[in-house]
Structure formats: C-alpha cells, structure tokens
Amino acid sequence: MPSAQKFLYNHPFDSTGLEDDKLKEECGVFGVIGTREAANFVALGLHALQHRGQEAGGIVSYDSEAGFNSARRMGYVRDNFTSEKIMGSLPGAIAIGHVRYSTSGSKGPTAIRDVQPFFGEFSRGGAAIAHNGNLTNADAIRTELIERGSIFQSSSDSECIIHLMARSIQKTIPERMEDALRRVEGAFSIVAMTGDKLLGVRDPLGVRPLVLGKLSDGWVLSSETCALDIIGADFIREIDPGEMVVISSDGVSSHFPFKPMKSRFCVFEHIYFSRPDSILGGRSVYETREAIGRELARESPVNADLVCPVPDSGTPAAIGYSLQSGIPYAMGIIRNQYTGRTFIEPSEQIRNIGVRLKLNVNRPLIKGKRVILVDDSVVRGTTSKKIKDMILDAGAAEVHFRIASPPTAWPCFYGVDTPQREKLLAATMSEEEMQKHLGIDSLKFISLNGLYRALGEPSGRNSNAPQYCDACFTGDYPIIPSDQISKGFALKAAQ
Q1: Cα 183 vs. chain centroid, distance in angstroms?
Q2: Is the same domain home to 179 and 301?
Q3: Model confidence pLDDT, tens digit, residues 362-393
Q4: Sign (positive/negative) of CA torsion 240, 244, 248, 253?
Q5: What is the Cα–Cα distance from 173 to 221, expressed in whole angstroms?
Q6: 469 is catalytic
Q7: In this structure, are residues 99 and 27 in contact, taking their beta carbons and an 8 Å threshold?
Q8: For residue 427, what are the CA distances in angstroms to 89, 234, 273, 469, 472?
Q9: Which of 357, 313, 310, 308 is nearest to 332 (CA)?
Q10: Residue 177 is part of which domain span?
C-alpha cells in the first residue's frame, strides 16, 4: 500500500448546528468486480452514498501489474475522487470504496488514519475491507491483540478484523474472514476484495443493509440500491443476514458461516438513514416514509392550516400526513442546499445565525397559519427549538410538531453516532415535558406499534420477537454492547 501522504483537513464545516441534532448516518460501502476502470464506478457509487458519511472517503483497487492501490481523503467524494490524477492511480477491474462518518475512532485532522478501506498483506495475498456498522466487543479484542503483539495503525474498530484475519490459520482469504468474523460481536456489513475476488458479508442479524447488483459482465455490492442506479447496474437481491458472497470470474457463490438468527434490521434505515429512492426489504423507502406519515396522522390529528416538512428528511412523512389528514401540504421551510461547506470562518457572530444558514421560513405562506411541522426525529431538541422560533417569528398562529419516529431515548451501538443517553431529550423528559421545553402548542411522536404498522406489520411490534432493531426507542439491544457495559453503561432493567 502506498505510504501516507500529507493532507489538508477539509472536513465540511457546518456552522449551523443543524446536523449536530441528527443521528449521523454511519457509513457506506461499495464494490465492483469484472469491469474496466472499476474505481471510477466505485467513485460514482460512493457519491450516491454520500448521505451515509460526509467526513471522508477511500478507494482501493487492484491491477495485475500495479498491484493494490489506495487513495484516502478527508471530505466529500466530489472534491476528491474526480481528478484524472487520483482516479488514474487506481487502475484495475476490481475496486472497493467507503464513505465515513466516524462512530468509533478519531475525529479531526488525525482521522485520516481511520479512513477506510483498510488493507492487509497476508501469507496468501493481500486483502482490503470496508465496514459499515460497529463492533461491540472491539475494545476487548483490540486489547487482546495488542497484548499478543499486534500493532494497530488506526483507532477504528474495523481494523480488528484485519488483525484477526492475519492471525487466522485458515488458508484462503474468505476462510480467514469467516474465522475473524466469528470472533466479533456487533453489526457489520462488509465489502472486501482480494486480487481476484469481491466479498460481501452481513452479520447474522442483518442490522445494516447490503445489496447485490449486476453491471454488464461485472458485479456490484452496495449499501443501498440508489448507488446501483447511478452506474446503471441492475438490482439483483439483498445479501441475506449471516450470508457471505464470494464473487469471482466463476460467478457468485453464497455461504452461511454463522449460526442462523432472526433478522433485526435497523428500523432507522427506513425512517431516516437510507435515501428515499432506495429499496429496503422489497419496498420503496419513500413509500414507507409516506406510510409512516399517514399512520402519524391517524394517531395524532390536530386542527391546522398547513402541513410542512422539516426538509429534507421529513418530506415524505409530511406528504403522507397531508394526504391522510386532508390538510394542505406546503413548503413552509426552504433548505439552502449549498451550505455544507462555507468560506466563512466559524466566528461567534456566524454561530449565532445558526440554523438560518441552512433553513429559511417562507414567511408569506406561514403568517397567520396554524402549522404542523413534520420531522423524522427529535434527538437533543436544539434544532427543533430554533425552527419553532423561526416559524413564530414569521407570524405563525400555532406550531405543532409531529415526529415520524418514536422518542429516541437510548444510544445506538451498531454504527450510528448517537449522543450519550443523558443528552437525548426523550431520555430525561416525558412527551408533555418535551412539549413545554420546546415551547410549542403540541408534540406527538408516532407510536412504536404505529411505526411497525406503517412498515407492513398489521399487528404492530411483537414484543417477544421484534422484527427490527429498535433499541434506540426501546432499550432492547439485540446484541449486548459489552464494551459499553464495561465502561459503565447500564442496560434497561427487565420489566
């Protein structure tokens, strides 16, 4: 692997505080095999997955003459993986890539060492891996490996997999990966590569998404179907929970190396993380979010004049709420799409402008109206208060919040950057207390059963066998977060 290069830290600066009040979108992975200039297709795929991680991105490719080649950069895909110089340094018919929002590991300028994909040279050849998720026993494994002589180059939990593969006595890279993944706990959707194979693996619970696509004579693995669309690949199927696929010139082979378990797919992928033009579980994400809005309107009606989304993630649910309630839908808040990066230094004056840099109220539309604001979630509540103030400043008569998810009261340990529990508004306040804290006329969240009904489960949530991972709402963790418990985290007491 080429030696690390000097770089400038160019992580997009968000001076609004808006994104700090959202759960961060874990990571995205993408891989291509069997086509010329595979890295170019990977760059396009990562661009489509940019919503899953905006801190950094990386691509590894393999060419029979040049061997393994890597480029890792801080910042957006569009700013780093479009030049002929960079893309020309990534030759070959096989490549994988990763976009990152750090849920473990370092942040800031030193975080370049944590940018994936990670690469390892083993006794039977090299391999690179890109991981979406989070290992819940990484601290314990890391300590064990260091005590046995391993030298880590990053602070990422994902590097543990590389070291476990290196210590495996199995012969082939797929077998070494199986061996390594049997040692870890947590959520993982992995895209990996050798010089002639592309691998995809999901953890036994299938917490994070991973799909298989076909591109002419080649194959594609991706976190979401929307990234297949951008390169003209056909969606074949989802990788099943606990499945490993190995793709080579011989085609696709499928293996199930883990003990079978009932799927617990992350329910927040449906609510917020995935792009609305993706397909999850055979269903359009957009249609699911619209159904959530309809269910929310049935559960929590209110007399009002307008239904307005908090853009952009609240839009499909707001449309559903409007269609079900008969209250007109309106773009009462307009989002400025060009403030992800700014040339303005983060002075105190700019910080005080806050959320207005990204969101602005459509004043003539709002004045004198009773407004229902539909958002995907409330985390800390700081942005909700700012938006409420903006709506009232514009002359709204009433402000009602309707939230397209149950109250987020527990942190996620499976690949989502969540505040500590005491910083989650719903962990310390009831719904009524939150309403008073936000200073709004009413506040209602969709119920847990209502969410499940919107997802196609007519009877709601089966408490004995939940169909999804909903730990952020319930505290019901399907994978014990052993590292966090060792640091003092207290699980929800048994009822």
Answers
A1: 24
A2: no
A3: 999 999 999 999 999 999 998 899 999 999 99
A4: negative
A5: 18
A6: no
A7: yes
A8: 49, 43, 21, 18, 10
A9: 308
A10: 19-263
For residue 450, tell me if it sits in a domain. yes
Give the count of alpha carbons within 13 A of 371, CB side only.
Answer: 32
Q: Are 405 and 317 within one domain? A: yes
Rounded to an integer, what distance in angstroms lies between the CA atom of residue 55 and that of residue 233? Answer: 26
User: The domain spanning residue 454 has which CATH number?
Assistant: 3.40.50.2020
pLDDT exceeds cutoff 70 at 21: no
DSSP calls for 227-246 = HHHHTTPEEEEEPPTT-EEE
- Evaluate if pTM is beyond 0.85: yes
Q: What's the pLDDT score for residue 3?
A: 31
Rounded-to-integer distance, Cα 463 and Cα 465, Å:
6
Span 168-201, pLDDT tens digits: 999 999 999 999 999 999 999 999 999 999 999 9
74 and 173 part of one domain: yes
| DSSP letter assigned to residue 290 | H
CB atoms near residue 87 (< 10 Å)? 18
Q: Is the pLDDT of residue 16 over 50?
A: no
Tokens at residue 220, please? 């594609």
Residue 329, helix vs strand vs coil: strand
Domain check: are 221 and 294 in the same one?
Answer: no
Residue among 27, 308, 412, 472 flagged as catalytic: 27
Per-residue burial over 128-148, b = 16 or more CB atoms within 10 Å of its CB, e = otherwise = bbbbbbbbbbbbebbeebeee
What DSSP string runs through 387-427?
Answer: HHHHHHHTT-SEEEEEESS----S---SS-B---GGGSHHH
Question: Residue 18 carries which side chain, given as an amino acid letter?
Answer: L
* Cα separation, 268 vs 245, whole angstroms: 25
- When divided into structural domains, the chain yields a total of 2
Which residue matches tokens 């030193």?
110
pLDDT tens column, 122-172: 887 899 999 999 999 999 999 999 999 998 989 899 999 999 999 999 999
Task: Tell me: do 231 and 292 sit in the same domain.
Answer: no
User: Among 63, 84, 104, 121, which residue's Cα sits nearest to residue 414?
Assistant: 104
Is the domain of 314 the same as that of 189?
no
